[in-house]
Amino acid sequence: MPHQEPVHGQRHPAAARRPGAEPRRAAQGLPPARSITLAPAEGSKHWQALEYGGEQWQKVHFRLRNSVEGYNGYAKSPLAEAIEAAGGRRIRGIAARTVLLVFQLAHANQWKIKNWIDTLALSGERPRRRTHHRRTTKPLGAWTPTGRPSPAT
Asked: Using CA atoms in the order 98, 99, 103, 106, what is the torsion angle rounded to 10 degrees?
């Protein structure tokens, strides 16, 4: 077979005998997209009641963040669930370890809820436990290198 130059857009004669997929052709005549317009309903799932980073948002965010970090500290504590110590979950396989970790977290959650319920006065009765009170400390500004100043009389 004599050598033939392929015509642009056609397959080579030798390739015509081989099975294969035709290459996809780009759509002709369409301008490239430069911008899009979305309806307001498209972004509604990202709506927030408080403006991100605003004063009210920070107040709520840091209060919630502190409660989450407090719970994490409780769950990791060696005196509580000790989830950070993987030695207590001596079992092979990540799935089995994950299931055991979930049980530990569920137990920690139930324990926290039980302790909170015990501090509530239900049906007019006295609570079974007292709430945790932090001890009052003197302000840091009252400290001097020689000790605390005597109260002014």
From this structure: 70
Mean pLDDT, 10 residues at a time, the chain of 153 residues: 61 68 67 77 82 91 91 89 82 89 92 88 80 71 68 58
Q: If 0-12 CB within 10 Å is exposed, 13-18 middle and 19+ buried, where does residue 108 land?
A: buried
> Within 31-93, where are the H helices?
55-76
Integer angstrom CA distances of residue 137 from 67, 133, 140? 22, 12, 9
Report how far residue 119's alpha carbon sits from residue 105's, in angstroms, rounded to the nearest whole number: 22
> How many of the other CB atoms lie within 10 Å of CB of 75?
20
Are 83 and 103 in contact, with CB atoms under 8 Å apart? no
Tell me the two tokens of residue 67: 């409660």
